[in-house]
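Hey,

The postdoc asked me to send both predictions to you directly instead of through the lab channel. I've kept everything plain text so nothing gets mangled by the mail client. Protein one:
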Amino acid sequence: MKQIVLPFDELRPDKVDDCLIITNANSAAFSALGNSSAWPGHCAILVGPARSGKSMLARYFESQGGLAFDDADALDDETLFHKWNEARGKDLSLLLVSAHMPADWNISLPDLKSRLATAQIILLDQPDDELAEQLMLKLFRDRGTSIGIDALAYALRRIERSYAGIEAFVRRANQFSLSEGGALTLPRVKRLLETER
């Protein structure tokens, strides 16, 4: 399996593609980033839920020669319009990143609003089974915590199925593992989840 899309905060751009996980949940989005020449106006808006790897994908896109801006919906109209013109002046494709669809942005400049309306929308879905499993394993591995396959499967069936939910569970389970000492076994994961009800 090729790896794509994990929500990490500090990564070198040239190492981003070593930490990504591609499944059906995000393969279309990743493919779209590699086809920026086909974007209308050479601009796309990457939209996805919290902790879904949007910032990592933006850094990856920039490492491939594009221009990207995170939390684009938080920029004022003039700044966003300037970023758009900057990309066009440098003949670069522009990737705007947000947790919200552009229709929900507070845009008042008519020219900017019309440009955003023509941009390609790239959506990141919530994790599918494969991505959720690989993400959880990777997050535990990064913390040096071992979890059994049966314990992993048990947790995945019971926790919130979102990037943020998986990350939050891994943090709690890691602390639990440190306090208990040893790997996260099925009985331990059951106890942890029962105490959180």
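Protein two:
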Amino acid sequence: MFKLSILIPSLTLLISISLLILLAPRILPNHQITISLPDELDDLSLFNKAIAAETTFPKHPSHKNKLRLGTIKVHQPKIAFMFLTNSDLHFSPLWENFFNGSDPHLYNIYVHDDPYIKIPPLKGVFKDRLIPSKRTQRSSPTLISAARRLLAYAMIDDPTNLYFALISQHCIPLHSFSYMYRFLLDARRLSRNMEFPSYIEILDHSDSLFDRYNARGDNVMLPEVKFMDFRVGSQFFVLTRRHSLMVIKDRKLWRKFRKPCINVESCYPEEHYFPTLLSMEDLNGCSKYTLTNVNWTDSVDGHPHTYHPYEVSSKLIYDLRESNSTYSYMFARKFSPDCLKPLMELADSVIFKD
């Protein structure tokens, strides 16, 4: 009887602790993780290296035309594809097809993976493309840090990276690599030494813009960011090297955007930092549109519409390509992992047939 009286409370305590661990994320408030001083200093050191290297690299063809088209491939500009993920790269086979047969001198791949989440080892073109990564969390400035980290590593890694495309694990390509390369790096513009634009959504209106501006507290963004300068846009972008350098050089706006939010429900720093910074620094150098199609018509809890297998069709791909601008969308999100099979069935006949 004595042993049983001890055993029952012990079992009860063990079960209670197990249930608390299991249910805590659902019943406790969403606490933002903060960026530690060591992590901040690590990033600052990385950014300074990228800035210093930029002054010593040979001038890129976009700055001074050294390119003879079709001859010296080492001088051809590249597109850096930067995957920001906190889960398995579900659509890596589709991306493998995207890169398949393309000249490897024309692109680079970089992956930022949350080290707190265990995912299978990267394979194929993604193998050995993981950069030193840090923890990320939705509705926190850690997503800004991760994107800036990707930009800095890509800039240091290859001075011929001219465009930097930020992509999520839920993104799929809508065109072939060659189609996208021709669109971004039009040989005629390159030969005329014309400036290339960045493709990033920049909007000055939104029903929730005021709440988002004050998500860190009333007037906390002042004086660096006035409400009239505050912008919203897509988290995913395609930036030029010139604008990427602006991003990693920034200290003034980052001091504000790195502050934790009081109102987490209105906190989406990654959707504001980049459009606000580039709008203030060089609005005319940006297209103000994104190349990633996102369906917000039936968003849930701040997440866009998620496409499921029964929705995947050739018509969907064609519809997702269409934009209000003069150019086509290059990527689309958000797709559930089980969409891979129907998408692979459309890869050669639709997606990569431009």
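Summary for protein two, as requested: Confidence is low (pLDDT under 50) at residues 19-29, 61-74.

Thanks,
C.
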